[in-house]
Protein backbone atom coordinates (compact mmCIF):
# COMPACT_ATOMS: atom_id res chain seq x y z
CA UNK A 1 0.00 0.00 0.00
CA UNK A 2 1.31 3.45 -0.94
CA UNK A 3 1.94 6.11 1.74
CA UNK A 4 -0.74 8.29 0.14
CA UNK A 5 -3.62 6.79 -1.84
CA UNK A 6 -5.97 9.31 -3.41
CA UNK A 7 -9.03 8.00 -5.22
CA UNK A 8 -11.59 9.88 -7.29
CA UNK A 9 -10.99 13.12 -5.47
CA UNK A 10 -13.24 15.96 -6.58
CA UNK A 11 -13.32 19.56 -5.48
CA UNK A 12 -15.60 22.32 -6.67
CA UNK A 13 -16.12 25.90 -5.63
CA UNK A 14 -19.40 27.75 -5.79
CA UNK A 15 -19.16 31.40 -6.67
CA UNK A 16 -22.10 33.69 -7.50
CA UNK A 17 -24.31 30.66 -8.08
CA UNK A 18 -21.87 29.06 -10.52
CA UNK A 19 -19.97 25.84 -9.88
CA UNK A 20 -16.27 25.67 -10.71
CA UNK A 21 -15.03 22.08 -10.92
CA UNK A 22 -11.34 22.22 -10.06
CA UNK A 23 -10.38 18.63 -9.20
CA UNK A 24 -12.24 15.98 -11.19
CA UNK A 25 -12.02 12.43 -9.90
CA UNK A 26 -8.29 12.77 -9.36
CA UNK A 27 -6.48 9.56 -8.37
CA UNK A 28 -2.84 9.35 -7.34
CA UNK A 29 -0.46 7.22 -5.29
CA UNK A 30 2.60 8.69 -3.60
CA UNK A 31 5.15 6.38 -2.01
CA UNK A 32 6.81 7.12 1.30
CA UNK A 33 9.91 9.22 0.82
CA UNK A 34 9.05 10.40 -2.69
CA UNK A 35 9.92 13.90 -3.83
CA UNK A 36 7.34 15.07 -6.33
CA UNK A 37 7.08 18.28 -8.33
CA UNK A 38 3.70 19.51 -9.50
CA UNK A 39 3.32 21.94 -12.38
CA UNK A 40 0.27 23.20 -14.24
CA UNK A 41 -1.20 26.34 -15.75
CA UNK A 42 -2.23 29.13 -13.44
CA UNK A 43 -5.73 28.32 -12.18
CA UNK A 44 -5.41 24.60 -12.94
CA UNK A 45 -5.97 23.76 -9.26
CA UNK A 46 -2.49 23.20 -7.87
CA UNK A 47 -3.11 25.16 -4.67
CA UNK A 48 -6.53 23.60 -4.31
CA UNK A 49 -5.02 20.14 -4.58
CA UNK A 50 -2.31 20.91 -2.03
CA UNK A 51 -4.86 22.32 0.42
CA UNK A 52 -7.04 19.22 0.09
CA UNK A 53 -4.00 16.94 0.41
CA UNK A 54 -2.97 18.82 3.55
CA UNK A 55 -6.54 18.68 4.90
CA UNK A 56 -6.78 22.48 5.03
CA UNK A 57 -9.79 22.16 2.77
CA UNK A 58 -12.31 19.34 2.26
CA UNK A 59 -13.09 17.74 -1.12
CA UNK A 60 -16.68 17.17 -2.28
CA UNK A 61 -16.01 13.53 -3.11
CA UNK A 62 -13.30 10.91 -3.02
CA UNK A 63 -11.07 9.18 -0.51
CA UNK A 64 -7.60 9.84 0.77
CA UNK A 65 -5.60 7.30 2.74
CA UNK A 66 -2.43 8.50 4.41
CA UNK A 67 -0.37 5.77 6.03
CA UNK A 68 -3.49 3.58 5.71
CA UNK A 69 -5.67 6.06 7.59
CA UNK A 70 -8.85 7.39 6.01
CA UNK A 71 -8.15 11.01 6.91
CA UNK A 72 -11.31 12.46 5.41
CA UNK A 73 -13.37 10.32 7.78
CA UNK A 74 -11.64 11.71 10.87
CA UNK A 75 -13.63 13.88 13.29
CA UNK A 76 -12.50 17.53 13.32
CA UNK A 77 -10.34 17.28 16.45
CA UNK A 78 -8.51 14.20 15.11
CA UNK A 79 -8.12 15.87 11.74
CA UNK A 80 -6.48 18.91 13.35
CA UNK A 81 -4.14 16.60 15.26
CA UNK A 82 -3.32 14.69 12.07
CA UNK A 83 -2.57 17.97 10.27
CA UNK A 84 -0.32 19.23 13.08
CA UNK A 85 1.59 16.00 13.45
CA UNK A 86 1.82 14.81 9.89
CA UNK A 87 1.86 17.77 7.52
CA UNK A 88 4.24 20.70 7.16
CA UNK A 89 3.38 23.60 4.84
CA UNK A 90 5.47 26.14 3.00
CA UNK A 91 3.76 28.84 0.98
CA UNK A 92 4.85 31.42 -1.59
CA UNK A 93 4.96 34.05 1.17
CA UNK A 94 6.93 33.10 4.26
CA UNK A 95 4.35 34.33 6.80
CA UNK A 96 7.05 34.71 9.46
CA UNK A 97 6.10 36.80 12.48
CA UNK A 98 8.04 40.07 12.16
CA UNK A 99 8.61 40.70 15.87
CA UNK A 100 10.27 37.33 16.52
CA UNK A 101 13.74 36.11 15.55
CA UNK A 102 14.32 33.35 13.02
CA UNK A 103 14.99 30.96 15.89
CA UNK A 104 11.76 31.87 17.65
CA UNK A 105 9.74 31.71 14.45
CA UNK A 106 10.92 28.15 13.82
CA UNK A 107 10.25 27.15 17.42
CA UNK A 108 6.73 28.60 17.60
CA UNK A 109 4.80 25.56 16.26
CA UNK A 110 6.60 23.38 18.83
CA UNK A 111 5.85 25.86 21.62
CA UNK A 112 2.20 25.93 20.57
CA UNK A 113 2.24 22.13 20.93
CA UNK A 114 3.58 22.72 24.47
CA UNK A 115 7.07 21.44 23.89
CA UNK A 116 9.42 22.64 26.61
CA UNK A 117 11.02 25.94 25.57
CA UNK A 118 14.69 24.87 25.75
CA UNK A 119 13.95 21.72 23.73
CA UNK A 120 11.93 23.66 21.14
CA UNK A 121 14.70 26.24 20.69
CA UNK A 122 17.31 23.50 20.45
CA UNK A 123 15.34 21.73 17.75
CA UNK A 124 14.79 25.04 15.91
CA UNK A 125 18.53 25.72 15.93
CA UNK A 126 19.33 22.30 14.46
CA UNK A 127 16.85 22.91 11.65
CA UNK A 128 18.16 26.39 10.92
CA UNK A 129 21.64 24.88 10.66
CA UNK A 130 20.27 22.26 8.28
CA UNK A 131 18.85 24.90 5.94
CA UNK A 132 22.13 26.80 6.04
CA UNK A 133 21.18 29.63 8.38
CA UNK A 134 23.33 28.98 11.46
CA UNK A 135 24.59 32.58 11.18
CA UNK A 136 21.11 34.12 11.00
CA UNK A 137 19.27 32.62 13.99
CA UNK A 138 18.97 35.98 15.79
CA UNK A 139 17.79 37.94 12.76
CA UNK A 140 14.20 39.12 12.55
CA UNK A 141 12.38 38.56 9.22
CA UNK A 142 13.03 42.19 8.20
CA UNK A 143 16.75 41.49 8.57
CA UNK A 144 16.71 38.48 6.20
CA UNK A 145 16.81 38.23 2.41
CA UNK A 146 13.81 36.70 0.64
CA UNK A 147 15.63 33.42 0.16
CA UNK A 148 16.75 33.32 3.79
CA UNK A 149 13.21 34.05 5.02
CA UNK A 150 11.93 31.18 2.89
CA UNK A 151 14.56 28.87 4.41
CA UNK A 152 13.32 29.88 7.85
CA UNK A 153 9.77 29.09 6.75
CA UNK A 154 10.98 25.69 5.57
CA UNK A 155 12.69 25.04 8.92
CA UNK A 156 9.49 26.05 10.71
CA UNK A 157 7.49 23.60 8.56
CA UNK A 158 9.85 20.83 9.72
CA UNK A 159 9.92 21.57 13.44
CA UNK A 160 7.13 19.14 14.34
CA UNK A 161 8.85 16.44 12.27
CA UNK A 162 6.10 15.97 9.66
CA UNK A 163 5.91 12.91 7.44
CA UNK A 164 4.62 15.00 4.56
CA UNK A 165 5.90 18.37 3.39
CA UNK A 166 3.70 20.43 1.06
CA UNK A 167 5.20 23.46 -0.63
CA UNK A 168 3.09 25.80 -2.77
CA UNK A 169 5.37 27.76 -5.10
CA UNK A 170 7.97 28.28 -2.37
CA UNK A 171 10.27 29.97 -4.88
CA UNK A 172 7.56 32.04 -6.58
CA UNK A 173 8.84 35.31 -5.11
CA UNK A 174 12.53 34.53 -5.58
CA UNK A 175 15.02 34.96 -8.39
CA UNK A 176 15.99 31.71 -10.19
CA UNK A 177 19.35 31.27 -8.44
CA UNK A 178 17.88 31.77 -4.96
CA UNK A 179 14.99 29.51 -5.97
CA UNK A 180 17.39 26.76 -6.96
CA UNK A 181 18.97 27.08 -3.51
CA UNK A 182 15.57 26.45 -1.90
CA UNK A 183 14.97 23.43 -4.12
CA UNK A 184 18.41 22.14 -3.21
CA UNK A 185 17.47 22.33 0.47
CA UNK A 186 14.17 20.58 -0.27
CA UNK A 187 16.07 17.77 -1.98
CA UNK A 188 18.44 17.48 0.99
CA UNK A 189 15.60 17.43 3.51
CA UNK A 190 13.82 14.76 1.47
CA UNK A 191 16.97 12.68 1.22
CA UNK A 192 18.29 13.11 4.78
CA UNK A 193 15.03 13.08 6.75
CA UNK A 194 13.08 10.77 4.45
CA UNK A 195 10.20 13.23 4.33
CA UNK A 196 7.71 12.76 1.52
CA UNK A 197 7.33 16.08 -0.28
CA UNK A 198 5.13 17.62 -2.95
CA UNK A 199 6.43 20.88 -4.40
CA UNK A 200 4.27 23.06 -6.63
CA UNK A 201 6.33 25.24 -8.91
CA UNK A 202 6.01 27.45 -11.97
CA UNK A 203 9.65 26.93 -12.79
CA UNK A 204 9.89 24.06 -15.29
CA UNK A 205 13.66 23.69 -14.79
CA UNK A 206 13.24 23.33 -11.03
CA UNK A 207 10.35 20.92 -11.58
CA UNK A 208 12.52 18.76 -13.82
CA UNK A 209 15.15 18.51 -11.07
CA UNK A 210 12.72 16.52 -8.91
CA UNK A 211 12.76 12.70 -9.09
CA UNK A 212 9.04 12.47 -9.92
CA UNK A 213 7.20 15.05 -11.95
CA UNK A 214 3.46 15.56 -12.20
CA UNK A 215 1.24 18.00 -14.05
CA UNK A 216 -2.26 19.09 -13.06
CA UNK A 217 -4.53 19.50 -16.08
CA UNK A 218 -8.25 19.05 -16.59
CA UNK A 219 -8.69 18.43 -12.87
CA UNK A 220 -6.42 15.36 -12.89
CA UNK A 221 -2.72 14.68 -12.46
CA UNK A 222 -0.60 13.16 -15.19
CA UNK A 223 3.13 12.51 -15.54
CA UNK A 224 4.97 15.66 -16.61
N1 LIG B 1 -12.19 30.03 -2.66
C1 LIG B 1 -12.47 29.96 -3.96
N2 LIG B 1 -13.71 30.24 -4.43
C2 LIG B 1 -13.99 30.14 -5.74
N3 LIG B 1 -13.12 29.77 -6.67
C3 LIG B 1 -11.86 29.49 -6.28
C4 LIG B 1 -11.47 29.57 -4.92
N4 LIG B 1 -10.18 29.22 -4.83
C5 LIG B 1 -9.78 28.95 -6.10
N5 LIG B 1 -10.78 29.10 -6.98
C6 LIG B 1 -10.72 28.85 -8.42
O1 LIG B 1 -10.31 27.50 -8.61
C7 LIG B 1 -9.39 27.39 -9.69
C8 LIG B 1 -8.10 26.75 -9.19
O2 LIG B 1 -7.43 27.66 -8.31
P1 LIG B 1 -6.02 27.33 -7.67
O3 LIG B 1 -6.10 26.00 -7.01
O4 LIG B 1 -5.64 28.48 -6.83
O5 LIG B 1 -5.11 27.21 -8.97
P2 LIG B 1 -3.50 27.27 -9.11
O6 LIG B 1 -2.91 27.15 -7.76
O7 LIG B 1 -3.16 26.11 -10.02
O8 LIG B 1 -3.19 28.56 -9.79
C9 LIG B 1 -9.24 28.78 -10.25
O9 LIG B 1 -10.09 28.90 -11.36
C10 LIG B 1 -9.68 29.68 -9.13
O10 LIG B 1 -10.23 30.86 -9.62
MG1 LIG C 1 -1.67 28.40 -6.67
Structure description:
With 224 residues, this protein is an alpha/beta fold. It has a single domain (33-58, 75-218), classed as Rossmann fold. Helices cover 36% and strands 28% of the residues. The protein has seven helices and ten strands. The chain has helices spanning 46-53, 76-86, 102-112, 117-130, 146-158, 176-193, 204-208; strands at residues 4-15, 18-30, 35-39, 61-66, 69-70, 87-90, 164-168, 196-200, 212-217, 220-223. The strands form two sheets. It has a six-stranded mixed β-sheet, sandwiched between helices. The model has no long low-confidence stretch (mean pLDDT 96). The site of adenosine-5'-diphosphate has 12 residues, from strand 1, strand 2 and helix 1. Residues 46-47, 168 line the site of magnesium ion.
> Major sheet, described briefly?
6 strands, mixed
Averaging pLDDT over every residue, what do you get? 96
CATH architecture: 3-Layer(aba) Sandwich
Q: Order of helices and strands, N to C?
A: EEEHEEHEHHHEHEHEE
Quick synopsis:
The protein has 224 residues and is of the alpha/beta class. The protein has 7 helices and 10 strands.
Give me the secondary-structure topology.
Layout: E1 4-15, E2 18-30, E3 35-39, H1 46-53, E4 61-66, E5 69-70, H2 76-86, E6 87-90, H3 102-112, H4 117-130, H5 146-158, E7 164-168, H6 176-193, E8 196-200, H7 204-208, E9 212-217, E10 220-223
Parallel strand pairs: 3-8, 3-9, 6-7, 7-8
Antiparallel strand pairs: 1-2, 1-4, 4-5, 9-10
Helix pairs in contact: 3-4, 3-5, 4-5, 5-6
The chain binds adenosine-5'-diphosphate (ADP) and magnesium ion.
Amino acid sequence: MAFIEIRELSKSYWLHGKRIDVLRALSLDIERGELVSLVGASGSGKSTFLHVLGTLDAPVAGTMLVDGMDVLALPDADLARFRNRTVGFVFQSHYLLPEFTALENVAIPALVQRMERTAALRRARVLLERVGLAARVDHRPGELSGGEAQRVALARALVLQPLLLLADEPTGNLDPVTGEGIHQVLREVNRDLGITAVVVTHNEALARSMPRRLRLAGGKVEPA
